[in-house]
Amino acid sequence: MDFSKLQEMMGQAQHMQAQMEEKLATTTADATSGGGLVTARVNGRKELLRLKLDPNVLTAASGDIEMLEDLITAAINEAGRKADAQIQSETQGMLGGMDLGKLLG
Questions:
Q1: What are phi and psi of 14, to 5 degrees?
Q2: Radius of gyration for the alpha carbons in the chain, expressed in angstroms and rounded
Q3: Fewer beta carbons within 10 angstroms: which end of the chain, N or C?
């Protein structure tokens, strides 16, 4: 077994991991729900960075907390899906076409 090649491969894997961590931290995606009443921004790690509520959402929800919760949830989930798609698209060449869906999900 050639340990120098193994060590080189390990170094490349660590470099790729660092690149992925950077990509996850810097990628952002926005999504809206309720016709733009709720806007969410997440990063590639699916951390919520920003949640914006249009003042009209209070009128639209008219005291229906469940509806507001659903709009917020929908915006956050859609932003997460967009971030996943963006990362997968941008990193396919780097990873040789591996399916990131399994890694990101």
A1: -65, -40
A2: 19
A3: N
Residue 38 is which amino acid? V
Q: Tell the burial category of 45 from Cβ atoms under 10 Å away from its Cβ (0-12, 13-18, 19+).
A: middle
- pLDDT per residue as tens digits for the range 25-66: 889 999 999 999 999 999 999 999 999 999 999 888 788 899
Dihedral in degrees, nearest 10, Cα atoms 58, 51, 70, 81: 150
How far apart are alpha carbons 92 and 98 in whole angstroms? 7
43 with 49: CB under 8 angstroms?
A: yes
DSSP line for 56-75: HHHHHHTT-HHHHHHHHHHH
